[in-house]
Amino acid sequence: MVFPQLKIGHMVPRVPIMQGGMGVGISLSKLASAVANAGGIGIISGTGISVEDMRSHIRQARSLINERGYIGVNVLFAMNDFAEKMKAALEEKVDFIISGAGISRDMYAWGKQAGIPVISIVSSAKLAKISERLGAAAVVVEGFEAGGHLGTDKPLFDILPEIVESVSIPVIAAGGIMTGSDIAKALSMGASGVQMGTRFVASTECDAPQPFKEKYVAATEEDTLLVKTTVGLQGRAIANKFTELITTSDKLRIKQCRDCLKNCSYRFCTLDSLLTSVAGDVENGLVFAGARVSEIKEILPVQKIIDNLTAEFMAAAAGHPIS
């Protein structure tokens, strides 16, 4: 075995790599099943799609994965349909639920009742400890380098050690993980595995449209920036006409309110802007991406990405002894 074994509940993937749950419409059944078949853990994002569409993608992914493939669903606590989506995913008997943008005591109880692990996305030792106490099977620690909405201004490797020390459940490192060397470093610091989102967007099987993937490949180091979205958090995105508009104009008009958030500033519609970009208009919608997106030079099959990460990990592991 090349990698140390990651175990979360009944899940024992061949590689300790979890694919990030990216909405809207970026990580659905095609990407999640491809990652699962390559030996990792796939995630379908439940954000911005209907409950029936989510059920359909869970079933499609299940039909595509082999016997040892694992898929879960990401449901955001900040969304109005959080409880409905979570209960539907549990009814579909996914391998796990992962949730961020807040913590619900109920979600752990629902997961326990269904016998399905619930994983929390956290950015501090305090939240990690609360999650463990409430029943989380693992925590994903997301650092400042991540794409999309951010829960901290601290780099991953600054917050990872404290969180590893604070809990006894598996800790998954996320935010700026791009290479096998990054994986080796995270595991050497006590992480049980990693979560990667940005790298898997530029994959053949990713559910995003081709212009969205090409935006990733074309991005330079100067192209990512932080924007304040209506969720109330900073989000990391690739610069385009839309980010220029929301960072310079005070006279924005909401084209369409989709009434999706429990709390919203109503300055513009974050969901609508994400749907715009996933429809292929990557200049007039939000294109979330991680801080290291400029390092991606080509769109590759998921299996090739995993193979490359494995080779890089083997080369780097000697310099990062893993207990």
Could you please describe the fold and organization of this structure?
- The mean pLDDT is 90.
- The radius of gyration is 18 Å and the shape is globular.
- 37% of the residues lie in helices and 15% in strands.
- The protein is α/β, with parallel strands linked by helices.
- It has helices at residues 29-37, 51-64, 82-91, 105-114, 125-134, 156-166, 180-188, 198-201, 210-218, 241-248, 270-278, 302-317; strands spanning 17-19, 41-45, 70-74, 96-99, 118-122, 138-142, 148-149, 171-174, 193-196, 224-228, 234-238.
- The strands form two sheets. Strands 1-9-8-6-5-4-3-2 form an eight-stranded parallel sheet.
- The chain is built from twelve helices and eleven strands.
- The protein folds into two domains: 17-207 and 296-317, TIM Barrel (Alpha-Beta Barrel), CATH 3.20.20.70; 211-293, no CATH class.
Largest sheet: 8 strands, parallel
Range of helix content: 25-40%
Strand order of the largest sheet: 1-9-8-6-5-4-3-2
CATH architecture of the largest domain, please?
A: Alpha-Beta Barrel
Number of alpha- plus pi-helical segments: 12
What is the molecular shape?
globular
Rg over CA atoms, rounded to whole Å, is 18 Å
- Low-pLDDT stretches are none
* Annotated CATH topology of the largest domain: TIM Barrel
Mean pLDDT: 90
Ends apart, CA distance between termini: 14 Å
Category from helices, strands and their pairing: alpha/beta
